[in-house]
Amino acid sequence: MKVVCTQCRAKFDIQEKNLPDKPFQVNCPKCRFEMTVKPPPKATPTLRGAPKRMQANQDAIMQLVALLTGQTARNADGSTGPLASWQRRQTLLCLADPAQAQHVLEKLDHQAYAPTVCTEVSKAIELMRDSRVDMVLLDPQFDSANQGGITILRHINSLPPKYRRRTYLVLVSPQVKTLDTYMAFLNGVNLTINTSDIDTINQILERSIRDFNELYRGYNAAAGLSPF
């Protein structure tokens, strides 16, 4: 099913098998505008096909929940599998050391995150302006020749509050303590991770995002927004 954003006119596709039977809310992957999408009418199943269609509807609802919560999809057999790339958290890796970027790539849960490695600050800013970016892992020394670290930090913190709140900024450095909320506040980021803790990055992100969603649970409910 093709969808056109009513805010920015961006076009994107939603797989027919992932659609529920009733109108549902979805965020534009480009500008994040929340809109109501009405699925096309579905053919009435025959009696023979009814059980399969009921299972398909149940799977579609599970996929929709996964889409709105950013979680891993659960298959019909109960196993879990990766979501489509646009359903996962779009993540930029803006790290100064290529070896460290590769280490993060190997450790990061690709079922929950869709990572893109950036080597230049201009490319990172372009991606943030032209596409949906949910999370940025930033080394302060990134593209130091062009002051990449401070440039990205300033760009993200200059976003309007509703967009800044949906962009999770993680400072990755050997100079910070992991999960140091005071240091995160001083640097204008959501989370700090010491480079020595990269092996447990998924558990760190899970804990931090859980706390973040709990902090903004009331706001999200009032605004009709899904958790990060």
Structure notes:
Helix 3 packs parallel to helix 4 (148-157). The protein contains eight helices and eleven strands. By secondary structure, it is an alpha/beta fold. A hairpin with a 6-residue loop joins strand 1 (2-4) and strand 2 (11-13). It is globular and about 55 Å long. The protein has helices at 50-69, 98-107, 121-130, 148-157, 161-164, 181-187, 201-215, 217-223, and strands at residues 2-4, 11-13, 24-27, 34-37, 73-74, 80-81, 89-94, 113-117, 135-138, 168-173, 191-194. The strands form four sheets. The protein has a five-stranded parallel beta sheet with strand order 8-7-9-10-11, with helices on both faces. Strands 1-2 form a two-stranded antiparallel sheet. It has a two-stranded antiparallel ribbon with strand order 3-4. Residues 1-32 form the Zinc finger/thioredoxin putative domain. It comes from Chloracidobacterium thermophilum (strain B).
Range of strand content: 15-25%
Mean pLDDT: 81
CATH superfamily of the largest domain: Response regulator
The CATH topology of the largest domain is given as Rossmann fold
Give start-end ranges of low-pLDDT stretches: 45-50, 69-83
Task: Report the end-to-end length measured between terminal Cα atoms.
Answer: 25 Å
Helix proportion of residues, in percent? 25-40%
Regarding quaternary structure, what we see is single chain
The chain-level structural class is alpha/beta
**How many domains make up the 3D coordinates?**
2
Count every helix, treating DSSP H or I runs of 4 or more residues as helices.
8
Order of helices and strands: EEEEHEEEHEHEHHEHEHH
Described by strand count, sense and barrel closure, the largest sheet is:
5 strands, parallel
CATH architecture descriptor of the largest domain? 3-Layer(aba) Sandwich
Radius of gyration from the CA trace?
A: 19 Å
State the name of the first-level CATH class of the largest domain.
Answer: Alpha Beta
β-strand number: 11
Strand order of the largest sheet: 8-7-9-10-11
